Amino acid sequence: QVQLVESGGGLVQAGGSLRLSCAASGRTFSSYAMGWFRQAPGKEREFVSAISRSGGNTYYADSVKGRFTIPRDNAKNTVYLQMNSLKPEDTAVYYCAADRQRITTPQALGVMLKSGVEYDYWGQGTQVTVSS
User: What is the per-residue pLDDT across 95-124, written as a single tens digit (0 to 9) for each?
Assistant: First the structure.
């Protein structure tokens, strides 16, 4: 069992930055690929970013590419979402998720992580609000 706890959300002006953290319980964090998703009011959940268990492969939605990064620290059982140049359309509840990575091919892994259907654990979410 893995528990995920997100933190770091808040209110920020457009153009500002936030760093979200997702802390995982347990001793097998390095076995999991990690993803970030978000859901805005009235919209479906959407993929934001993901990282392989080793950190060697990262994936981004087109809408955040060049603005967001997803570092992870396996020693601290934590994955981050560094969000820069924030826009009002980034306003959403952000969720982290863990996938017991079973795929090693980077391309196939990316397809699976972006789909959102194979993750084993989800956090409760943290609100990010970007004002214009």
Answer: 999 999 888 899 999 999 999 988 999 999
